[in-house]
Amino acid sequence: MCHYQSFKMDQKDQLEDQYFRFIWNTFDANLTLSSRELFNEGSFTDVTLVSEDFQVSAAHRFVLSRASSTFKKLLLINSSANSMLYLRGISQKVLHLILQFIYTGEVDVPTNEITDFLKAANDLDISELKNRPQSSSISTNFEDTEASDYFQDIQEQECKSLISNNDDIRQ
Questions:
Q1: Who's near 169: CB < 8 A, 6+ residues apart?
Q2: What are residue 63's phi and psi, to 5 degrees?
Q3: What CA–CA distance (Å, rounded) separates 62 from 72?
């Protein structure tokens, strides 16, 4: 669905012009859907990621650089048409989970992969996952409900800390 609106622009020393602005109402939803399709289909890839266990994953420079400042820096250094990046210390299982999160905005991580997943996210500087608790504060031998409670407690602690810091700044 698209709609348009008419407006005028004033420019120095020029006649007033009439413009039509076209707005794509479902742009955000379409972008999300397209990102999921790219992940599932693997089409139009332009970078190859090699995991620690030498498994290959195809990806998109734009998508990687949007989610990770580390990927962005590496891809700017190596701007060849189809770059290849070796990701030491990151298994194919964890790389696939990271890519699923980057492309779809969500991922279900098995409890036995949480530590490696969060370490990789921090190492790659994945903007929405960095600075999450690491293995020292996560036990992988708990029930799913306990895991949910644990992460909710962590989020509450982070919020309380932010509120406390803001209160300290105001005083």
A1: none
A2: -65, -45
A3: 9
How far from 142 is each of 126, 146, 147, 148, CA to CA, in Å?
26, 6, 6, 10
CA 59/CA 82 separation, integer angstroms? 10
**Per-residue pLDDT band at 134 (split at 50, 70, 90):** low
Say whether pLDDT at 150 is over 90.
Answer: no
Instruction: Give tens-digit pLDDT for 17-43.
Output: 678 888 888 888 888 888 888 888 878
In the numeric block, which tokens belong to residue 23?
């707005």
Q: According to the 3-state scheme, what is the secondary structure of 95-150?
A: HHHHHHHHHHCCCCCCHHHHHHHHHHHHHCCECCCCCCCCHHHCCCCCCHHHHHHH
* Amino acid residing at 129: L
Q: Per residue in 60-87, pLDDT tens?
A: 999 999 999 999 999 998 877 778 999 9
Chain centre to alpha carbon of residue 151: 19
Higher-confidence residue: 165 or 79? 79
Residue in 54, 74, 56 with CA at minimum distance from that of residue 64: 74
133, two tokens: 């608790």
- What 8-state DSSP symbol labels residue 16? -
